[in-house]
Each structure stands twice: as structure tokens, then as C-alpha cells.
Design brief:
Blueprint (H helix, E strand, L loop, with lengths): L1 E5 L3 H13 L3 E5 L2 H10 L4 E5 L7 H10 L6 E5 L4 H9 L4 E4 L4 H17 L5 E4 L2 E4 L4 E4 L2 E3 L3 H12 L7 H7 L11 H14 L7 E4 L3 E4 L2
Helix pairs in contact: 2-3, 6-8
Length: 223
């Protein structure tokens, strides 16, 4: 498995990575929540191991951002805070398990493997959330701050792709390939037209515009 370790204690992070590597897992490490969030958004991981108390961005905030992005990668929190209220806060923030420090590497690995089994047999993601936007992939509905937004099928597909890549720049080529299934540029303004319609529907009447044009790059849906 490919595992993201977000831990500001470099000695602990190194020991954890070594133990996981010896069990056959690939690891990527980050020293704080901001770096961990960037890696989580830029790459795919099977499991995330996240320390609660870190500089720049704490683990709770990082995982809350990950969940708002629609990323349901299983998260194991690590923390010296072991009270029931601490565990509840971690789980409610989007964590799937909570391990109190100090811990044995054997237990850490067992919990990681248990999360992987749960992921493989778990339910498929059906709800995407970015900021105040919520998309139900089964009911095919979209709401922003509780207000229903009526979208045409192609607009729904476009928004789904943007939500799955929230806070990332998405190029026109990516949209043509993934939303329109074109392997070439048809030299039309089809993307501009749909982006304009989508922007008017999800941003009109709200204080904060979410759908941004990135000059020279493409578009970005901001959380």
C-alpha cells in the first residue's frame, strides 16, 4: 500500500516509515499539516497516518480539509491526547481510527491493515462536498448552502470533475478528455460556454465566487 505519514517529529516519522517499509508498504512523509494537505491533493494514497498536534496546520484541520475535498482515504490519527473527548473529536473530524502515543509498531501496522480491509469492503463514495457545495452522485442533485441548484447532465459532469479536483488548476485538455471524452481539441468554445453557465448557477447570489479562471492554465473550484 501507499501510505502518507504526516508527522512533525522527524525521528518518529522516520521510524514509522522504516517499520512500514519492512512490512512491504511504500511511504511518503510530510512534516506539517499544510505539506500533508498538498500531498493528499496532488497524489493518491491508500492510507493516511496523521499526527494531531503539528505546526502550521494541525491534523484535525488537515483532515477536515481533505474530507471537504471529497477525499475518503482512510485516516489513522496519532496523538498523545488520549481522553475520550479527544478521540471523539478526531473521529468526528473525519478520522477512521485513533491511536494514542506511545504505541507499538506492531499495533500501528495491524490498524493500518485493518483500515485497508475496511476500505476494500466499504461503501462507494456517493457524496462530494467542497466548501458549501454538496453533490449527491446517486440522487444526481447539487446544493450550495442548502439551496438546490438545477444542472443539465453535462454541467453535472463538469462540476463533478471540478469537485473531485477542488483547489487544483484543471486544464482545458483535462476537461475535454475527462468530461467530453475528446482526445483532440475540437477548436470550439464548448468549454467556455459550459463554464459560464455553471458559474452563473453555483455562484450567483452568493458572496464568495467558487469557480475561478486561472489565467493561462484553466479553471479552479475553490473550497
Amino acid at each position: 500500500m501507499r501510505i502518507l505519514i504526516v508527522e512533525d517529529d522527524l525521528e518518529a516519522s522516520s521510524a514509522m516509515a522504516k517499520s512500514l517499509a519492512e512490512s512491504g508498504h511504500e511511504t511518503v512523509t510530510a512534516e506539517d499539516g499544510e505539506a500533508g494537505l498538498r500531498l493528499a491533493r496532488d497524489s493518491r494514497f491508500d492510507i493516511m497516518i496523521v499526527d494531531r498536534m503539528m505546526p502550521r496546520m494541525d491534523g484535525i484541520t488537515m483532515v477536515e480539509c481533505v474530507r471537504r475535498d471529497g477525499d475518503q482515504t482512510p485516516v489513522l490519527f496519532l496523538s498523545a491526547l488520549g481522553e475520550i473527548s479527544d478521540r471523539v473529536q478526531g473521529l468526528r473530524a473525519g478520522g477512521d481510527d485513533y491511536l494514542v502515543k506511545p504505541y507499538a509498531f506492531a499495533e500501528l501496522i495491524a490498524r493500518v491493515e485493518a483500515l485497508a480491509r475496511r476500505r476494500d469492503t466499504g461503501s462507494v463514495l456517493t457524496i462530494l462536498r467542497v466548501g458549501g457545495l454538496e453533490m449527491d452522485l446517486i440522487a444526481r442533485t447539487v446544493h450550495r448552502s442548502g439551496q438546490e441548484i438545477d444542472l443539465q447532465p453535462r454541467e453535472f459532469q463538469l462540476l463533478e470533475f471540478l469537485m473531485r479536483h477542488a483547489d487544483q488548476s484543471v486544464t482545458r485538455t483535462m476537461l475535454l478528455e475527462k468530461v467530453w471524452e475528446y482526445n483532440f481539441d475540437p477548436q470550439t468554445n464548448v468549454i467556455d460556454v459550459h463554464i459560464s453557465r455553471l458559474r452563473s448557477k453555483i455562484d450567483k447570489g452568493f458572496d464568495k465566487p467558487m469557480l475561478q479562471t486561472v489565467r493561462g492554465a484553466g479553471y479552479r473550484l475553490e473550497s
